[in-house]
Design brief:
The chain is α+β, with helices and mostly antiparallel strands. The chain folds into two domains: 5-121, no CATH class; 132-204, SH3 type barrels (Roll), CATH 2.30.30. The protein has helices spanning 45-59, 92-108, 132-137, 200-204, and strands at 5-14, 17-26, 61-70, 75-83, 117-121, 142-151, 155-166, 173-178, 183-187, 191-196. A five-stranded mixed sheet has the order 1-2-5-4-3, covered by helices on one side.
Length: 205
C-alpha cells in the first residue's frame, strides 16, 4: 500500500439487508492511486469469482449474487451472500467476517488494483434469484421479473407467483402465475433479473 493509504470499514444496515463495506484508497481524494501491475480486472473476473466462491466455502457461505461496477483503476465488487446451508439469516457479523476474509485473499495475491471497493451484504428482502435451485426453493413466493425487452407480449416487468422453472431439463424458462391469473413461461435469455417481492400484508400482521 502506498504512503498515505487509508482503510475505511463500515458496518450497517441498508433497508433490511446487513452490509459490510470495505474500501482501500487514499486518505485524500485529491491524490491518484495507480492500479497494481499485471492485473486485468475484465479478463480475470471468472477467476476472481471462482476464488471468492472457494474462500466463502471455507467459511460456510455461498455467493447469491456477484456484481461488478466502477472501472479498471477503481473496481467495485458487490457480493450478496448466504449461509450454506441457508438455515439462518445473514448478520452484520457474517458480512464483516466474509469481507475480512476476501480482503486478505485479494491483497495477498494482488488480485485487484490497490484502490478497490468491496461491498458484502445479505440477500435482503428483495433477494435476487440467480441459481436454478433458487427458483425451486422459492416456489410459491411472489416475484418481480424484469426483462431486457417486452416479456410474453405484455410488459418489460412482470409480477406474480413463482411456479418454478420450465423448458425440460435445462430450466430455460421461468414459470409465473401473473396477478391476473394467467400462467406464462418467460425465457431466461430475455430476463434482466428476478427478485422476491415482499408481501407487506403478511409483514404488518
Amino acid at each position: 500500500m502506498t504512503a498515505g493509504g487509508a482503510r475505511r470499514y463500515i458496518e450497517g444496515v441498508a433497508g433490511a439487508a446487513a452490509v459490510a463495506f470495505f474500501e482501500w484508497g487514499m486518505a485524500s481524494p485529491a491524490f491518484f492511486v495507480g492500479s497494481r501491475q499485471g492485473v486485468d480486472v475484465k479478463t480475470d473476473r471468472t477467476g476472481l469469482q471462482e476464488g471468492f466462491a472457494e474462500q466463502l466455502a471455507h467459511l460456510g457461505y455461498e455467493i447469491v449474487q456477484l456484481q461488478w461496477a466502477g472501472n479498471a483503476q477503481r473496481p467495485v465488487v458487490r457480493l450478496r451472500v448466504e449461509h450454506e446451508p441457508p438455515n439462518r439469516p445473514v448478520s452484520l457479523d457474517d458480512c464483516a467476517r466474509v469481507s475480512r476474509r476476501l480482503e486478505a485473499w485479494i491483497d495477498e495475491g494482488a488480485r485487484l488494483p490497490e484502490r478497490y471497493v468491496l461491498e458484502v451484504s445479505s440477500p435482503g428482502m428483495d433477494r435476487p434469484l440467480t441459481r436454478d435451485r433458487d427458483f425451486q426453493r422459492f416456489r410459491g413466493r411472489r416475484v418481480a421479473v424484469r426483462g431486457t425487452q417486452v416479456l410474453c407480449g405484455r410488459a418489460s416487468r412482470l409480477e406474480g407467483e413463482l411456479l418454478g422453472l420450465a423448458g425440460g431439463g435445462d430450466g430455460s424458462a421461468i414459470r409465473l402465475r401473473l396477478n391476473e391469473g394467467d400462467e406464462v413461461e418467460v425465457p431466461r435469455t430475455a430476463v434482466r433479473d428476478v427478485r422476491l417481492e415482499q408481501d407487506w400484508s403478511q409483514v404488518i400482521r
